[in-house]
Structures are given as structure tokens and as C-alpha cells.
């Protein structure tokens, strides 16, 4: 969706009845509104502003993604960022034209962060139906709602015992700053849950601050050693991720500092490009052998997880489950990333709601649903999304982009550049100092606890006393697409 930068009408009343009048176009401009601090120009990650005769002008409106960092940084609040209604010409809207022009001038595909932005069936297309007489609701003020979960108790001596079914997903050091990783570790500990190293190795500070930490085993093997694996409370074999299905990780050399180099065990300033697949996992037998190998290294103490991008979900899940996985993660196409081609994000994979249902059914077909834990990822934003994911068949969920937003991310989609104004997706010390990891860690915990409370309200109004008791029968679909993808009956109809 395109955006337009405009003046704040509450500050400037000199619009002479002309819609769209702005301070920088005004015939009788109030010079007090813009102090020429150039915060908008200096902090815009997309180069929307240009300096013309000593004034910042938003000349490149087509580049605006609506992150509103300029608004937040403006000391006078002189700026507004408003969405522009989509062009009626659906096939050739303004964003399409802008992108074609950019490609014709640069001969390059579009690279950005986050995940799929176009409208696809998601959790908002489902509702939880309330219990009334046939099944009474639970009084939240008199009966507690259980939220504790145990994940990965199939073979592991020490499964993950969590106070909430909300886990923090894999985001690597290098892609994120040390301060961001420490904030997530603190938040996970305060909330009684677990965070994930991502594929960038394990920060000593992250290990110290996180009560529970998943060590990811990705195709690039950055920072991987026997010691690294033994320090994890679970091992996650990353086969793929929703935002970049069929692709490995991308970390440009500009973000590979001396510290990142040491943790990842790669040369300083070199691009860290992980392969699209594990070179030693090319079939079902190889995955089974890898799971066994990791189990031996960790003395059968911790759960072994396998994470897939949502594609051929049923086949992949069955292979992982039969191969001995304790926990399986399915990452839908709404999952995020620090850097990836837009064409992959928008046109590859399947929606999260569909992947959960397919994975749940696959485990039931092979008789392992009660033995293997299922984690859903991709587009989880609220307690309502959590409740619906569990009702569809998940045992827990991953949050990643949402966790970053809780520590200050404005989703400007430029993580890969290393110039994050919030100190999150950067290695620049001058920017990292903007992030108070102790305070932001509390924000993460508050967010997770509130999500959990929201889910509990839906659980109890559905007539259940524990979050794991939610079932597909507690849901109704609001659209035909969502009903067809999930098998959830349409609201008011009672059938697909």
C-alpha cells in the first residue's frame, strides 16, 4: 500500500480550505512548525526526503512504506504519514508501476525484510465461538486458566517446560544487534518461555540471560560446535523458513563486525550466505541420521526440533516424525526475515492457518500426534492468533517480528542494510546505543504475558480451563477461503 507524507493539521491551520496543503508548500508557512532539525531526512530509512535550499522535502513519496519513523523523530510532530487508497486499476496500481520503473532502471529484483504483505487467508478469518448454555463459559475471576505446556517429551530427558505456549523465534546475532538479542533473552526469561539463537551462533550474554535457549542448527553451520550444541536447551534443525522457502540466510558483509565474525566463525566483513539446504541432508534417511547424531552429542538430554517452510507439509512432517523428531515447526508464508527477495515472500509457500491443519492431520495419520509436539510460526501477532493456532492443532507458537516490534521495531523493511534507527537490526554502535536492552526486555515480557492473558479469555469464554483444550470445533470461518483451507465450518452454516 502506498503512503503520503503530509503536514499535521492540528499544528498548521493555514490550509485555506485546500485539501492536502502542507507546511512545505504553504503560501504563508509557519516557520515554527519545522525547526529544520533534519530528523526526518536523517532517520528515514528509504530516502523519502531531500534537502532543497535548506529545507527537507518529501520528494520521493513513492519510496514511503509507512513506517512513520520520520513522524516519531520529529520534535514538533509536524508530520503525518497517511495511507493512499489503492488504485482502482488492480492490475496496474501505483505500487506495480513504481516497481516496474525501479526494475527497468536498476536491473535488479527487490530485496526487503519482513514477510508477505499482500492479503492472504489468516487468523483474522477465523473466530472463536462462545460457550453459552449447551456448554457454559468459565468465569475468569473464579477459575484460573492453565497455560503451561511441555514440548519435546518424546525422547528427551529434559523437555521444554514453559509457562506459556509462546516462544521467541529464530533471529540471528549479526542480523540483530547484541542489545536486541539480550532484550529478547531477558524477555523470554521473565515470561517463563524460551528464545532461539537463530543461525548466527550463540552470544555468551544471550546464554547467560536466557533461562531457556534453543540452539539452531542451520545449513551454514555458523558458530556450530559440540560445545554450542550442548549449551542449548533444545536443538532446532532448520530445514527452511516461511519467508524464504528454498533459500538460505543472507547477511551482508557490512554487518559482519569483529564480534559477529568471532561468534559466527567467519572472516570479518565477508558476506554470510548459507546454502539453500544442508549438504549432508538430501533425503529422509539423512535427516533421521542427523537427528540421531545430534541426540548422541547432547546425550539424549534435550529435544531435537525440525523446522520447515510450509510447502509439502504432510510429506515433510511425516518424514521428520518418523525420523525421530521431538518437536516439528511449520513456518507459514507470513513468516518474516531480515533479508530476502520480495518475489519469494509474496509468491511462495502456503498460509500459516493451512500449514497447521495439514501438519496436525499428517501426525494423526501416522499415529504420532500424541508423541510429537507441533509449533506454528508465521504471522502470529496477538492472543487471538495464539488461541486460534492452538485450536487448529498447534501445541505452541513462535513469534519473531511481533517480538521485535515490542522492543521498538517500526517494520521499515530495511533490516538488511544495517542502518536500523532503533538499534535493533544493526551493528552500528551509535545506533545500538539507542536500545536499552534491560527496559526493552521488560517490554517483551509484558507483551508475551498480555498475549497469554488474551488467549486465556478466549479459552474460558469457549468453556475450557486450559489453553491446550481448544479444538477446531471451537472455531468458525468467516470466509470461504479460510474454511476450505482449514476445514473449519463457516459461521452460521455449520459446514464447509
List the helices and strands and how they pair.
Blueprint (H helix, E strand, L loop, with lengths): L2 E5 L31 H5 L6 E3 L2 E3 L11 H5 L5 E5 L10 H13 L4 E2 L13 E3 L20 E3 L8 E3 L3 E3 L9 H14 L3 E2 L7 H6 L3 E5 L8 H5 L3 E5 L11 E2 L6 H7 L7 E2 L10 H14 L6 E6 L3 H10 L4 E5 L8 E2 H6 L4 H14 L7 E5 L5 H10 L3 E4 L1 H6 L22 H4 L4 H25 L13 E3 L2 H7 L10
Parallel strand pairs: 9-19, 10-11, 11-12, 12-15, 15-16, 16-18, 18-19
Antiparallel strand pairs: 1-4, 2-3, 5-17, 6-20, 7-8, 13-14
Helix pairs in contact: 4-15, 9-11, 12-15
Task: Describe the model.
- The protein is an alpha/beta fold and 496 residues long.
- The chain folds into two domains: 3-83, Alpha-Beta Plaits (2-Layer Sandwich); 123-486, Aldolase class I (TIM Barrel, Alpha-Beta Barrel).
- Helices cover 30% and strands 14% of the residues.
- The chain contains 16 helices and 20 strands.
- An eight-stranded parallel β-sheet has the order 9-19-18-16-15-12-11-10. A two-stranded antiparallel ribbon has the order 1-4. A two-stranded antiparallel sheet has the order 2-3.
- α4 (178-191) crosses α15, α9 packs across α11 (352-365) and α12 (383-392) crosses α15.
- The model is unreliable at 15-21 (pLDDT under 50).
Q: What key phrases describe this protein's structure?
A:
two-stranded antiparallel sheet; eight-stranded parallel sheet; TIM Barrel; 496 residues; Alpha-Beta Plaits; 20 strands; alpha/beta
Amino acid at each position: 500500500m502506498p503512503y503520503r507524507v503530509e503536514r499535521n493539521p492540528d499544528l498548521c491551520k493555514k490550509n485555506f480550505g485546500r485539501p492536502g496543503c502542507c507546511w512545505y508548500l504553504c503560501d504563508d508557512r509557519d516557520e515554527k512548525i519545522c525547526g529544520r532539525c533534519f530528523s526526518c531526512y536523517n532517520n528515514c530509512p528509504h530516502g523519502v526526503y531531500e534537502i532543497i535550499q535548506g529545507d527537507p522535502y518529501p520528494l520521493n513519496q513513492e519510496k514511503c512504506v509507512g513506517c512513520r519513523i520520520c513522524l516519531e523523530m520529529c520534535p514538533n510532530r509536524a508530520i503525518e504519514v497517511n495511507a493512499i487508497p489503492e488504485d482502482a486499476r488492480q492490475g496496474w496500481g501505483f505500487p506495480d508501476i513504481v516497481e516496474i520503473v525501479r526494475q527497468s532502471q536498476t536491473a535488479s529484483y527487490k530485496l526487503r525484510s519482513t514477510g508477505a504483505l499482500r492479503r492472504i487467508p489468516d487468523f483474522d478469518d477465523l473466530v472463536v465461538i462462545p460457550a453459552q448454555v449447551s456448554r457454559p463459559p468459565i468465569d475468569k475471576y473464579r477459575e484460573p486458566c492453565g497455560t503451561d505446556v511441555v514440548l519435546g517429551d518424546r525422547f528427551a530427558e529434559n523437555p521444554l517446560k514453559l509457562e506459556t505456549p509462546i516462544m521467541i523465534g529464530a533471529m540471528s546475532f549479526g542480523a540483530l544487534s547484541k542489545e536486541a538479542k539480550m532484550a529478547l533473552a531477558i524477555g523470554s526469561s521473565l515470561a517463563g518461555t524460551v528464545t532461539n539463537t537463530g543461525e548466527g551462533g550463540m552470544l555468551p550474554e544471550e546464554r547467560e540471560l536466557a533461562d531457556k535457549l534453543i540452539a539452531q542448527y542451520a545449513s551454514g553451520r555458523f558458530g556450530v560446535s559440540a560445545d554450542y550444541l550442548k549449551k542449548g536447551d533444545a536443538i532446532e534443525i532448520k530445514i527452511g523458513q516461511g519467508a524464504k522457502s528454498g533459500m538460505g540466510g543472507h547477511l551482508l558483509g557490512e554487518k559482519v563486525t569483529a564480534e559477529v565474525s568471532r561468534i559466527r566463525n567467519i572472516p570479518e566483513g565477508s558476506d554470510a550466505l548459507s546454502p539453500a539446504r544442508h549438504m549432508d541432508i538430501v533425503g529422509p534417511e539423512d535427516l533421521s541420521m542427523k537427528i540421531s547424531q545430534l541426540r548422541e552429542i547432547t546425550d539424549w538430554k534435550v529435544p531435537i526440533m525440525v523446522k520447515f517452510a510450509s510447502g509439502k507439509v504432510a510429506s515433510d512432517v511425516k518424514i521428520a516424525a518418523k525420523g525421530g523428531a521431538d518437536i516439528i515447526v511449520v513456518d507459514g508464508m507470513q513468516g518474516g526475515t531480515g533479508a530476502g527477495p520480495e518475489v519469494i515472500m509474496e509468491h511462495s509457500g502456503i498460509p500459516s492457518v493451512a500449514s497447521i491443519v495439514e501438519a496436525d492431520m499428517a501426525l494423526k495419520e501416522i499415529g504420532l500426534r500424541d508423541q510429537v509436539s507441533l509449533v506454528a510460526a508465521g504471522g502470529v501477532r496477538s492472543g487471538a492468533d495464539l488461541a486460534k493456532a492452538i485450536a487448529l492443532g498447534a501445541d505452541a507458537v513462535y513469534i519473531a517480528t511481533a517480538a521485535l516490534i515490542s522492543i521498538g521495531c517500526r517494520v521499515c523493511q530495511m533490516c538488511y542494510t544495517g542502518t536500523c534507527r532503533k538499534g535493533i537490526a544493526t551493528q552500528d554502535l551509535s545506533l545500538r546505543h539507542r536500545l536499552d536492552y534491560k527496559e526493552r526486555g521488560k517490554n517483551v515480557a509484558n507483551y508475551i504475558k498480555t498475549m497469554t492473558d488474551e488467549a486465556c479469555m478466549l479459552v474460558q469464554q469457549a468453556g475450557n480451563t486450559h489453553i491446550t483444550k481448544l479444538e477446531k470445533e471451537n472455531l468458525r470461518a468467516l470466509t470461504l477461503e479460510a474454511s476450505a483451507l482449514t476445514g473449519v465450518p463457516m459461521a452460521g452454516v455449520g459446514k464447509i
